[in-house]
Amino acid sequence: MPTLEVLFLLVVVFFSISLVWTTLRVGISPMPSSAKAYQTMLMLTENTGQGAIYDLGSGWGTLALRAAARFPDRKVVGYELSLLPYLVSIFLKQVYGANNLTLYRRDFMASDLSEASVLLCYLYPGGMSKVSALISSAQIKGSKLSSFHNEANQLNTTTRDALPLFVISNNFSLPDHQPEQEIRLNDFYHSPIYRYRLD
Ligand SMILES: C[S@@+](CC[C@H](N)C(=O)[O-])C[C@H]1O[C@@H](n2cnc3c(N)ncnc32)[C@H](O)[C@@H]1O
């Protein structure tokens, strides 16, 4: 077999193994949110102030890119562990010139979310338990959330330092929290989209 073809085959095998390996490791594949789901998630992101939007597990970058385009004045951050989706998302970010989007190949559990105003999630039940634990640890570290809310409910993230304000989740609920909004999509499963306000 010619060398180029062998090389191509090796690259395909490497990325396929890496995709399967990371899916098994993190507990979910990089399947993107459906069109109805991301439209609803972005609609629920309206009226959440001007603070940073974080996509926890940004996959191929499709949701994060749309968030960056919809909210050009807000910082958008994506964390993704899976190599191939991450590389594709970096490529798409360059293609679309999304200057307000920053993508990291990193475990969001080991990342600093203190700047986040909105956490976007499309994970799985165990992943949402991790997000819940992350929020609790942010609360334990101490936040200025109450002073933030006392400031006339102005959604200005400069007045707080340790806690995300909103969690918007596709399909999976956030344990130990009550959603302020739950929208059922007009799809086969009537999939829920939840919005939690953390105060
Ligand atoms: C179902 S996809 C969602 C992609 C995108 N957020 C969307 O809604 O279109 C979930 C992604 O989360 C990633 N993921 C899961 N746990 C993670 C973690 N702890 N840190 C970073 N990425 C993670 C997975 O690799 C996967 O690509």
UniProtKB/TrEMBL annotation:
One of its GO terms (molecular function) is protein-lysine N-methyltransferase activity. InterPro entries: FAM173A/B, SAM-dependent_MTases_sf. Keywords: Membrane, Methyltransferase, S-adenosyl-L-methionine, Transferase, Transmembrane, Transmembrane helix. GO terms for biological process: methylation. It comes from the Bacteria. The chain crosses the membrane at residues 6-24. This is Methyltransferase small domain-containing protein. It comes from Veronia pacifica.
